[in-house]
């Protein structure tokens, strides 16, 4: 029984050919030398960062303002639902007519 298991392991190992030393040497050489930066790459400036920060601040203000508006709308709706559930008739706020 052990002989069959040993043959199976030998077959598995023999399916993968060994890695040639040339490939290993090429891999080691590229890992030792860092890549030199290219001159055509984009360089971020202080102006670009200020613009990006301003846009992010605007987006944050819009999201927070929308969240506050949504929370207030939900609170008012809950008050209206509670009033109607208790049988109230004049639950909605009065709408003032424009002056003539």
Low-confidence stretches: none
Shape field: elongated
State the helical fraction: 55-70%
Quote the average pLDDT: 80
Report the span from N to C terminus. 105 Å
Instruction: Calculate Rg over CA atoms.
Output: 36 Å
What is the number of domains? 1
Biggest beta-sheet profile:
none
* Number of helical stretches of at least 4 residues: 3
Question: What proportion strand?
Answer: under 5%
Kindly state the number of beta strands.
0
Please write out the topology.
Elements: H1 2-15, H2 21-32, H3 46-85
Q: Key terms for this structure?
A:
100 residues; mainly alpha; 3 helices
Explain what the structure shows.
- This protein has one domain (2-32, 47-85).
- The chain is mainly α.
- The protein is 66% helix and 0% strand.
- The radius of gyration is 36 Å and the shape is elongated.
- The longest helix has 40 residues, at 46-85.
- It starts with a helix and ends in a 15-residue tail after the last helix.
- The model has no long low-confidence stretch (mean pLDDT 80).
Summary, kept brief:
The chain has 100 residues and is an all-alpha fold. It has helices spanning 2-15, 21-32, 46-85.
């Amino acid at each position: 029984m052990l002989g069959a298991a040993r043959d199976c392991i030998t077959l598995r190992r023999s399916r993968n050919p060994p890695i040639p030393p040339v490939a290993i040497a090429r891999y080691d050489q590229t890992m030792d030398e860092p890549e030199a930066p290219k001159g055509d790459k984009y360089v971020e400036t202080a102006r670009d960062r200020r613009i990006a920060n301003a846009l992010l601040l605007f987006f944050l203000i819009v999201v927070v303002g929308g969240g506050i508006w949504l929370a207030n709308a939900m609170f008012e709706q809950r008050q209206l639902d509670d009033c109607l559930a208790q049988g109230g008739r004049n639950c909605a706020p009065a709408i003032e007519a424009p002056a003539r």
